Amino acid sequence: MVTVLRDDDIGRLLRPADAVRWIGEAIDAHHRGDLIAPPRSATDLDGGRLVFTVGRLRGSWFGYRSYDTFPATSGDQVVAVHDEASGRLLAVAVGNELGARRVGAIGAVAVDALATPSADTVGVIGTGTQAYAQLWALSAVRVLREVRVYSRNAGRRAAFAERAAPLVAGTCRPVDDAREAVDGAQIVVLATNSGSPVIDATWLAPGAHVTTLGPKQQGRAEFGPDLPAAASLLVTDSVDQIDAYDPPNVLAGTPQRERLVTLGQIRNDGAVRPPDAISVFFSVGLAGTEPFLLYQLYRQVTS
User: pTM for the full model?
Assistant: First the structure.
């Protein structure tokens, strides 16, 4: 019998600490070569694309995620995981929660590896699903004393701050401009759809960590070239995926691309990071992490 999970099930079953731990295991498995995660592939449709990401954990399972990019719809994503030995379909997740929360968990794994251990002040630019998922997962790796939220719509940022407040040990409040959100923050999350920069690198505090989730392609990016230039440490969850961007990623052909390392390298090989150094995590959504989470939830509900 196939286990089917929907958004309500994901919200009820998946806890932040478990998600972060499992995603950390996935990133380590990818670093070892046990998690096979090629870049995403897509089929063009009228007005959008059908996108697939696939993954395989050697000796255990294989699976995929599929979703569309139609701008006027928010169609359900599908994540499926199969037993590797038999090929039997074990579980399917339908909806959008699993994908968003695994991106949140990836961001939290990056913060735990890159941000200073005492980091407790967060500036968030963006008020959508991805911004919330980042705070949801961050609550498992840092005690959040202050969160400042900015987006262009005052009503949305106020509503977001109210919704996210239970994730924050201290205050969670909307602010009137992006600089106020970023100024002095030890962790900065960019979670926008903007095709032009939403922050200036000079606003960042010494030692700040930045996670960027939104557009990061040449000609369309939520940050400018000043951000990677200001960073001492440039990290991503998948170099293969970032190199497969079309149009190319903003780092393509730049000296900064040669400095880019994977989160798996940081977690397993370490990195020397001066206390005042800025780090940037280019989140691209390591393929295979969705079925990795789904497999763990399948084991949880069937044990």
Answer: 0.97
